[in-house]
Write a structure and sequence with these properties.
The protein is built from four helices and no strands. It is mostly helical. It has one domain.
Length: 139
Amino acid sequence: MDYESHHTEFSRSIMVGLFVGILANVLCLAYDAFFRLSSSYFLSELINVSTLSFFVVLIGLITGVIYYYFHHYLKPANILFRLFAVLITGGLILLAIHANRTTNPIVNIEFRELLGGIILISGLCFMLLIPFFYKKDFL
C-alpha cells in the first residue's frame, strides 16, 4: 500500500507550527515547574498550566501560518523569518521586563523572570524548529 501523503505548503506549515507549539509547550511547562520549585514564586493566576498549554500551542499555529507567508512569498524565507522572530521575541522580552504584576518588588521580579523565560523558550523554539521541521519529510 502507498501511504505517501502529499501536503500543500499551507497544511505543512500548519502541522509544523502545531508540532513545534506542542514541543515549546512541554519545554515551557518544564521551565515553569523548575522555576516555581527553585524560587518562592507562588502566583498562578496568569501563568499556569492551562494558559501555557492554550497560548503556546496557539502561537505555534499562528507562527506556522506566518512562516508559510514568508516561505511562499519571500525568497530568503528562513533568514527573514528568523530575523522577524528575533525582533518579535526581543520586543516581547522588553515588554516583559517592564511588566508590573504586584506591588511586592520581589514577586514582581520573579514574575518578570518567569514570563521572560517562557517568551525566550517559545521564541527560540519557533525561530529554530519551524524552518528545520518544515524541510523534513517525516512530518
